Amino acid sequence: MAHYQNLLVAIDPDEEDQAALRRAVYLVRRNGGKIKAFLPIFDFSYEVTSLLSQDERMAMRQSAIDQRVAWIRQLSHYYLESGVNIEIKVVWHKRYHEAVIEEIIEHDHDLLLKAAHQHDMLESVIFTPLDWHLLRKAPCAVWMVKDQPWPEHGRALVSVNLSSEEDFHDELNRKLVRESLELAAFADSTEVHLVSAYPSTSINIAIELPEFDPTVYNNAIRGQFLVAMKALRQEFGIPEELTHVEKGMPEDVIPAVAEQIHAGIVVLGTVGRTGLSAAFIGNTAERVIGHLKCDLLAVKPDDTSEHDDHDDED
Fold this sequence. Notes:
Layout lengths: L5 E5 L8 H13 L2 E8 L2 H4 L6 H22 L1 H5 L4 E7 L3 H12 L3 E9 L4 E3 L2 H9 L3 E6 L8 E5 L7 H20 L4 E8 L4 H6 L5 H23 L6 E5 L2 H11 L4 E5 L13 H7 L5 E5 L15
């Protein structure tokens, strides 16, 4: 987390309260770095007004940009006056998510923050199509922010993949834990938990193989996961009581544990192509994300290009 120094905040054009900007300010006040408040805008009517010359259309476009810059500056005035380093940038672009991704690539932003909307009745986080585009295609870590203050004595829940024999999963596990511990070092008493889900026996196996003992199989699988979890937690000095190895599907286990421990954020790994190509974040991550009720930090491996065809972390 300490290496996140060049933050890009995707501004919500329809909200006066910018939760993602608030979270970014929280981070840089404790961790250093700089913030760019970024907003792509577009009004098709400005492009098709045949009665206006090209210069007049450009002037109208610039006027709209200037108005939005002034609006963001007003929203940010308290932070700016307190000395927080915030650059404000508004661009004219037809596609919001493409503008954001292009900005990340051009200026080497290492963390994107965007507000996720909350369903008041269920307290669940609602991800819009724009959110999914950014989660899938952004070439840097993405922090989806729920509209609530960072909890005092909060907890970070790190989802780790203990089932893969591939080296890059082990490397990504370590990266997730390391960055979460760095977050805990400067956030307000954040406690880091680890979670991994292991599969239960398929009922088809038990039916087709009468001599098969599902209890023995489940215990063996759980044992393998516990050994792997022990090695990982000991490497980083995490107490055993802060680790969770549970039977079930990741999309059920991870949100349930997050709610049980009152996690302020879930940290998980994603794998996908960078830039504007047909990226993906992995089937497991997509299913997990849709069930969360807290902030989400989605982190890619250090070299995503090598792992485009693999699934994500649990």
